[in-house]
Design brief:
The complex is a heterodimer of chains A (853) and B (121). Chain A has 25 helices and 24 strands. Chain A is an alpha+beta fold and 853 residues long. Chain A folds into four domains: 80 residues, no CATH class; 172 residues, no CATH class; 305 residues, no CATH class; 186 residues, no CATH class. With 121 residues, chain B is mostly helical. Chain B has a three-stranded antiparallel β-sheet with strand order 1-3-2. Chain B is globular, with a radius of gyration of 16 Å. The N and C termini of chain B lie far apart (42 Å). Classes of the chains: A alpha+beta (853), B mainly alpha (121). At the A-B interface, helix 2 and helix 3 of A face helix 3 and helix 4 of B.
Chain lengths: 853, 121
């Protein structure tokens, strides 16, 4: 039998598949059986049959033996847990929160940064910012896109809100006009009908000419809602701002790019439209550095003579579309991810601490088992089973918490990614959860296992083992304190950034202000004079209402408007460095908004009616051409042509939108009722109570006119700051939770020490030491790990503060005083915990202790 | 310790074929593992050929249940191999085997009533 040694060696290796307990008892016997069988197997065929039978035997017996031992260990663990229900409950809760928060935040990171967009080959799709493709006519654009050396194809689109449906049945919806190749560039095929055909994007203004251009692809959700998924939807007509469009296709489910769009129509190109955005697909074989280089050259060619200031303020960039969509949420999510990883680490150290204390308690049991023949492997297997069981219980509970976290995150993340629903029911997220559970199980299981091995080695419950166990647990507390300081400093930094955001001067008074949007597109009030008449009538009715102090209207309300009219305006022929935003407003606008008129006055009713060429400029615009004090009376010009005479200078308003906080020019609103038209009213009393009244007054002018966005200005600000507020609340909760875990950890270690040292403490009291003295001594000992953790904690907080500055807008590293206050705060909370934990010392019965000792 | 009262006897049945055959073999006297395996294979005409894992898995379970125990005695000193472990049936194991036999007998009786007893079984 030439194969005998090999077969034997192989079988010896295979025996290691059995669980430790069975292996210890039977490995020798099994091996002997194998030898006997091997001796009886003559010839290759007999050997082959022997191996087939052995493999079948292993396949049956290994899992059954594992199940047997794991069941035994699990039962043992459950009995132990039942004896310490609070310890166990706390351990599971701590881990569940750690794992759950991690899973929830990871599902957001997964959706934002990892999962593919609902496009074909999405990593080749790029977004081009401050890149001015020729777009005066359809022919000009298509000719340009065909000659690109690095882009396979480029599409333009413009997004806006519009009224969908007929009179009385309108709804406000996000719509897009796009070049005919929009769907092919993104690689999305309509599920029904077709996309745009070449030639359907034409030259024209507004809604474009009727005919080939008056077609639309609708979103899957809208198709379900309006047509209940009926295939006859294709070919029917839908009205957008009163314009009839023929439906030619239905977008695939989940496709709503850009930002919850429900309808796409072919573009109507007209000279001077600056609202276009650009997406493109890279040519196959073009690397990212090649694309960057080619883009930089072309961006310069398309926007020559850019000033240094313009290069800084409007840098041309080419980014992966996914990164563009993730935007500010990307950095915020990464900060949250870092925070929840810290939480999980703290939870793990805490559970490790609990298990260490329990393993130390069980030293006698483990020693006895060891003396009875249980091997190191068998004891480790048992402890590992306990840890895995704990992890699994926490993992199951964590999934519930993750579900909750995910739904909160979904409410606060940006609309641009609405198609990217956050879900924990995703392969990658579930793998992450299981990995987090296993890794945390190993993290908190490894120290108790190592300690158990020491017990096994010494086979005694010696004082050395006790001391080393205490040292390890104190080191764990120090680690917790360190991580808690980092989280606390982070939360303070993020919290301060949010407070700064809340209290920034936005150039208007946000309280006591009612805002209501209307859109006259597609109504009977088309035409400048009719539009103006409608607004005048509505304002008159609002002003007559009780409790209304003043009322006005604007075409671009701060926070609400996302696109603007504007252009390059100068003063008295002097050219400007950058574009100015132009906002048509009604008389009384600044008084109503609580704006500040620095020089001059507001528009009068007569100036509005007579279409007077007058303007109010903001301080930024005025200061570009000299002192704001001398601005009134000068002319706003384009080139050398006067456009408006300046009658006032105001403090600029913060629109919280890119490009809007530039020089601002306010002009009388001769043709109101566009995309972002808003009535504003300053009211007495509780603002919310005035909403319905003002809405009804506007609706009473013409019930067919869409009235929406009935909100107080504070509500709008609240909504606009939802994401930073969410980050602040989340980080604060994490810091509070970390602090709680750390305090419980410290409390646990001290109360355990008191229980362990009862005899020694009793003797010391018998020798004359007072309980108060003993408690102070324990307090000193308990605070040591905090001091030890504070030093690396502050170092970590300094590093994380620098990182935060780059990740969170407005976040600043906290100063030394705040670090010191954080440490003192933790020490104070911990000191209270320790003092409470040492309370039993005062109640020690010295006589009883001495008698039993 | 495993339960050994009368009610526990019934709760262990039906026994797996491996366990019942091991009890049957040990009912005749003490055996080591390999002898058990060979005897069972012989008795069943090779139909029940226990692999080492299943054999010692069953023995492990039977030891825990108290059906068998390890024996220090060696039946024949000349044939003894000290590296082998010998097992013998316990009184409790005998009761469980009896209960299993009774259960089987009742099944055979019932089958006889329902289907008749073949002449050449």
């Amino acid at each position: 039998m030439p194969d005998a040694p090999f077969s034997l060696r192989l079988y010896q290796r295979l025996l290691k598949l059995y669980p430790a307990g069975f292996r210890e008892n039977y490995a020798e016997l099994l091996e002997r059986e194998f030898r006997d069988e091997l001796n009886e197997s003559n010839g290759t065929a007999a050997l082959a049959i022997l191996w087939i039978r052995l493999i079948a035997d292993l396949a049956i017996s290994v899992p059954s033996q594992f199940a047997r031992e794991v069941t035994q260990d699990a039962r043992h663990a459950l009995r132990l847990w039942a004896r310490h229900p609070w310890h166990t409950g706390f351990a599971i809760l701590a881990l569940a929160i750690g794992i759950g928060a991690n899973t929830g935040v990871f599902s957001v990171v997964n959706a934002l940064l990892l999962r593919s967009l609902p496009f074909h080959d999405p990593e080749r799709v790029v977004y081009l910012r401050y890149f001015f493709t020729p777009h005066d006519s359809a022919a000009q654009f298509h000719e340009w896109r065909r000659q690109s050396t690095y882009l396979a194809d480029t599409a333009l689109f413009e997004q806006f809100d519009a009224n969908l449906g007929g009179a009385g049945e309108w709804r406000r919806a996000h719509v897009v006009q796009a070049s005919s190749n929009f769907f092919s560039v993104l690689g999305a095929q309509p599920v029904l009908g077709r996309g745009f055909a070449p030639g359907e994007d034409v030259d024209g203004t507004g809604w474009g000419p009727p005919g080939p251009n008056a077609v639309a692809v609708i979103g899957y959700g809208l198709w379900q809602e309006l047509f209940a998924g009926d295939q006859k939807a294709v070919g029917s007509t839908i009205r957008v701002d009163g314009n009839p469009l023929t439906i030619i296709g239905v977008a695939p489910p989940g496709f709503d790019y850009p930002g919850k769009t429900v309808l796409w129509k072919p573009a109507a190109f007209s000279p001077g439209n600056n609202g276009w955005e650009t997406v493109a697909r890279l040519k196959p074989g073009i690397t990212w550095p090649q694309a960057l280089a080619a883009f930089a050259i072309e961006a310069d060619r398309l926007w020559p003579n850019r000033t240094a200031l313009q290069r800084i303020k409007y840098p041309s960039t080419i980014t992966e579309l996914r990164d563009e969509l993730a935007g500010p949420a990307k950095k915020g999510s990464l900060v949250l991810m870092a925070c929840v990883v810290l939480i999980l680490l703290i939870a793990c150290t805490n559970v490790a601490n609990l298990l260490m204390a329990r393993t130390a308690d069980r030293a006698t049991e483990l020693s006895i088992r060891s003396a009875l023949g249980a091997s190191r492997a068998r004891i480790s297997q048992q402890l590992l089973t306990e840890c895995v069981l704990l992890s699994l219980a926490a993992c199951a509970a964590g999934l519930f918490i993750a579900f909750w976290t995910t739904s909160i995150a979904a409410a606060f993340q940006p609309a641009a990614l609405a198609s990217q629903a956050y879900s924990i029911l995703d392969g990658r997220v579930l793998c992450f959860t299981i990995a987090a559970s296993v890794v945390s199980g190993l993290l908190f299981g490894v120290l108790p296992s190592l300690y158990a091995n020491r017990v096994h080695t010494f086979r005694t419950r010696g004082s050395t083992a006790n001391r080393s166990s205490r040292l390890i647990r104190e080191a764990l507390v120090a680690a917790q304190v360190m991580l808690t300081i980092v989280l606390l400093a982070t939360s303070i930094s993020v919290g301060r950034a949010f407070l700064d955001l809340m209290h920034v001067d936005r150039g208007f008074e946000r309280t006591g202000l009612v805002t209501v949007n209307v859109s006259l597109e597609g109504t009977t009030h088309e035409g400048d004079s009719r539009r103006l008449a409608y607004f005048e009538e509505a304002l008159a009715r609002i002003r007559r209402l009780p409790g209304v102090r003043s009322a006005s209207a604007t075409e671009c309300l701060p926070i609400y408007a996302t696109s603007f009219m504007g252009g390059r305006f100068g003063m008295d022929g002097g050219p400007a460095d950058e574009n100015s935003m132009v906002n048509p407003v009604f008389p009384d606008y600044f008084r109503t908004m609580g704006g500040r008129i620095l020089r001059g006055r507001e528009f009068t009713e007569e100036e509005l009616q007579s279409e007077a060429r007058v303007a109010i400029v903001n301080e930024l615009f005025a200061s570009e051409f000299g002192s704001p004090a001398d601005t009134v009376g000068r002319q706003v010009t384009t080139g050398n042509n006067p456009v408006w005479r300046i009658i006032g200078v105001v403090k600029g308003m913060d629109y919280m939108t890119e490009g809007a906080n530039s020089p601002q020019i306010f002009v009388p609103s001769h043709s109101p009722g566009g995309f972002f038209s808003t009535f504003v009213a300053r009211v007495n009393g509780r603002t919310e109570d005035r909403l319905a009244m003002i809405r009804d007054a506007i609706q009473s002018v013409d019930p067919q006119v869409p009235v929406f966005g009935v909100k107080t200005m504070e509500q709008r600000l609240f909504d606009a700051l939802a994401r930073p507020r969410f980050y602040r609340t989340a980080v604060l909760c994490f810091a509070a939770f970390a602090l709680l875990l750390a305090v419980i950890g410290i409390y646990g270690i001290v109360s355990y020490t008191v229980a362990q040292r009862t005899h020694e403490l009793g003797v010391r009291m018998a020798l004359g030491t007072t309980p108060a003295h003993l408690r102070v001594s324990l307090l000193r000992q308990g605070l040591l790990p905090i001091a030890a953790g504070a030093i690396p904690g502050i170092a970590g907080a300094v590093l994380s503060g620098r990182l935060l500055e780059s990740l969170v807008d407005g976040a600043k590293s906290v100063n030394v005083t705040t670090y010191a206050a954080s440490v003192l705060f933790i020490a104070l909370i911990a000191a209270i915990g320790i003092w409470v934990a040492t309370r039993p010392i005062a109640r020690l019965d010295i006589a009883e202790i001495l008698r039993t000792g | 310790m495993p339960p050994k009262d009368q009610s526990a006897v019934g709760s262990l049945t039906p026994l797996s074929p491996a366990v019942f055959h091991i009890l049957l073999s040990l009912g005749e006297g003490e055996r080591h593992g390999y002898a058990l395996k060979r005897e069972i294979a012989l008795r069943t005409g090779g139909k029940l050929n226990l692999g080492p894992g299943v054999l010692y898995g069953s023995i492990n379970k039977m030891l825990e249940l108290g059906l068998i125990e390890e024996s220090d005695d060696r039946p024949d000193p000349h044939l003894d191999d000290e590296r082998r472990r010998y097992y013998r049936i316990t009184p409790y194991g005998r009761k469980v085997a009896q209960a299993e036999a009774a259960r089987m007998r009742e099944l055979v009786r019932l089958a006889g009533v329902r289907f008749g007893v073949p002449k050449h079984a």
